[in-house]
Each structure stands twice: as structure tokens, then as C-alpha cells.
Specification:
By secondary structure, the chain is α/β, with parallel strands linked by helices. It is built from 13 helices and eleven strands. The protein folds into two domains: 115 residues, Isopropylmalate Dehydrogenase (3-Layer(aba) Sandwich), CATH 3.40.718.10; 183 residues, Isopropylmalate Dehydrogenase (3-Layer(aba) Sandwich). Helix 6 crosses helix 7 and helix 6 packs antiparallel against helix 13.
């Protein structure tokens, strides 16, 4: 288990990443090595600052940094010795089993195409794990493909189904296409065509789902184009932070409320953990011949540790091999359904 981590892409510097790596290594002794990719002098300073001296840590020097301001495609081409590109190259060369980066999302998606798509997969999809009332669900695409065709969403459904089975442990994940209502007459041309294709696949497809369903344990795999999916993801995270802030403010507004909050503090801690995006670590880029994890740009120590855990889970479950096996059958069904629609 070898994980390459882009140390330079986050908002909080190398020390935070190094501390997250330290926590991950302490939590999982099955990790063979973590390759810290970035400017060597800054990484060494960060390792010293957090007291990380493990022989499971290796530094891979990269002289450049891809910033959030860089154009994704141009940045990948121009900054060939950036920490993100070098980390991806390690995976392509077989020196790393997974790549983690908190950097520019567009650049990570563009750069990860160096790993090539799994045969039969037309578009990779960012897959985000999110909390619901009693469990979790996965949302894809969460931002890789703002413009999609119906067959892309159908493939997302297949990949999401596999991920939910393996990572969430669900025997028959409920798969739905996100729309503005549950009725068949709702949606647009994309969602209607995608829904028709998903109904032909070997899935537990439940049809359209709407915003009300997402956090009510009504669906396990939510399929959308990257434009809509990314809005859902960021809105949910922002709402979670806002709710925790409002709750804290109201619970400390009067002495009596403060007393009640003290009595219930364990429950509130549990609620905060449940809603904290850092617990989930990052989103997986499914559909590639490699394991790529997009961590939040604002990731702190726990988020980096969680992203490493997500990477190890994906590798151990062989998600990519499972996708490769199932996508061929799905594509045959999609082609047949498309041909039948065209003929009629």
C-alpha cells in the first residue's frame, strides 16, 4: 500500500499535511509507504516540526506548485514538475497505488487522465460520500464533468453502485437520478434520457430522486451531471457549517441554555462528528486506471488522515477491477436501449 500525497496543493501548508500523514500511519500499519511530493526543503521542515521520522515516509522532490488560479489544462502542461503532476506520474509509473491532492480540482481531473480511463468508461466521475439521516449515500458526479450526455450518467450509476456495495457495504444500493421532482414528467432532456437508460441496467434503480430525498435515507447512489452535483455538494457542506454555527449561538444565548448544552455536550459532539466533512476526507475520482482522491483545499490534519483512509479502502476493495468487469455489460445494455429508442 503506497500512497502519493501532493503536499503543496492545500491552503494550510506542509506542516498540516505532515501531521495528517503522521496520524494516518499511526492508525494503519498496513500502509507500506507514503510518498510526500513537493518542495523537499519545505517537506523536511514540516516533518521536523511535527516530529515525523517514520521509515515509511519518502520525499519526492517537485520544484513547482499548481495553484487554484492556474488554468487546469494549461497548468498541467506548463508546470510539468509540479507536485500534483509528479504525484500522478508516480501512480502511472506503478510506484504509488493511490494519489491524494487537495489542489486545483480541474487540474487534478485533467492531469489524472494520464492514468487513462478504464476500458469502456467514457468519463471519470468525482464521487462524494455524504451523511444522511441514519447512514451515508454517494453522489456522483460531484464536479468533474459539468456537461454530460445520458450515457455518461448511466455509467456514473454503475460506478456508484459498485462503490456503494464495496465501501458502504450495501447489498442492493438504491440508485436514483437527481431531478426537480420524482414524477416521470419532471426533469430535462438529459435526466429523462439518463433515467430511461438506468432503468435498463442491472441496478436497483428507483427512478428520479429530488432534494428532499437525499438526506432522508431514501437513496444510496445519487446520479447527476458535474454542474448540478458540485452545487449540491458545496451547498450541503455550507449548510452543515451554518447549522453548527447557529446551534452553538443559540445554545449559548442564555444561562439556562448553556446548562442544557453542558448536559448534552456528548450528543452535540457526536452530531458535529457526523456532519463534519473532514471525517470523509475527500472525494474519489472513479473510472480511471488508478486511484485518485480529491481532498478539500482547506483540509486540515484529520481531513488528510481521512483522505488516506479513503485511498486505502479503494485500493483494498479493488474498486477499479470491479468497474472494469461490470462496465462492459452496462455498455451493451446502454447501446441496445439507445438503438431501440432511435429505431422507434
Amino acid at each position: 500500500m503506497r500512497i502519493a500525497v501532493d503536499v503543496m496543493g492545500g491552503d494550510h501548508g506542509c506542516v498540516v499535511v505532515a501531521q495528517g500523514v503522521k496520524l494516518a500511519l499511526e492508525a494503519d500499519d498496513r500502509i507500506t509507504s507514503i510518498l510526500l511530493v513537493g518542495k523537499e526543503d519545505e517537506i523536511k521542515s514540516a516533518l521536523s516540526a511535527c516530529g515525523l521520522t517514520s521509515d515509511r515516509v519518502e520525499i519526492v522532490h517537485a520544484s513547482e506548485v499548481l495553484t487554484m488560479e492556474d488554468n487546469p489544462v494549461e497548468g498541467i502542461r506548463r508546470k510539468k514538475d509540479s507536485s500534483m503532476v509528479r504525484a500522478i506520474e508516480l501512480a502511472r509509473e506503478g510506484r504509488a497505488d493511490a494519489v491524494i491532492s487537495p489542489g486545483n480540482t480541474g487540474a487534478l481531473v485533467a492531469g489524472s487522465m494520464k492514468l487513462r480511463r478504464i476500458e469502456g468508461v467514457e468519463r471519470p466521475a468525482i464521487t462524494a460520500r455524504m451523511p444522511s439521516r441514519n447512514g451515508d449515500f454517494v453522489l456522483l458526479d460531484a464536479g468533474a464533468n459539468p456537461v454530460c450526455e445520458p450515457q455518461h450518467l448511466a455509467q456514473f450509476a454503475v460506478m456508484g453502485d459498485i462503490y456503494a456495495r464495496e465501501i458502504l457495504g450495501l447489498a442492493k444500493p438504491r440508485v436514483g437520478v437527481l431531478s426537480n421532482g420524482s414524477e416521470e414528467s419532471k426533469g430535462n432532456d438529459l435526466t429523462r434520457a439518463a433515467s430511461a437508460l438506468c432503468a435498463k441496467l442491472d441496478l436497483n434503480y428507483i427512478g428520479y430522486v429530488e432534494g428532499f430525498d437525499l438526506f432522508d435515507d431514501a437513496v444510496d447512489v445519487v446520479v447527476a451531471d458535474g454542474f448540478v452535483g458540485n452545487i449540491v455538494l458545496k451547498t450541503a457542506e455550507s449548510l452543515g457549517y451554518a447549522m453548527m454555527h447557529l446551534l452553538k449561538r443559540e445554545l449559548t444565548a442564555t444561562p439556562i441554555r448553556k446548562l442544557g448544552a453542558m448536559i448534552s455536550q456528548n450528543a452535540f459532539r457526536a452530531l458535529k462528528r457526523r456532519m463534519d466533512p473532514e471525517v470523509y476526507g475527500g472525494a474519489v475520482l472513479l473510472g480511471l486506471n488508478g486511484n485518485v482522491i480529491k481532498a478539500h483545499g482547506s483540509s486540515r490534519e484529520r481531513a488528510i488522515m481521512s483522505a488516506i483512509r479513503v485511498a486505502t479502502e479503494e485500493v483494498r476493495h479493488g474498486i477499479n477491477d470491479l468497474i472494469a468487469k461490470k462496465i462492459a455489460d452496462a455498455n451493451q445494455r446502454i447501446a441496445a436501449a439507445t438503438a431501440a429508442t432511435t429505431t422507434s
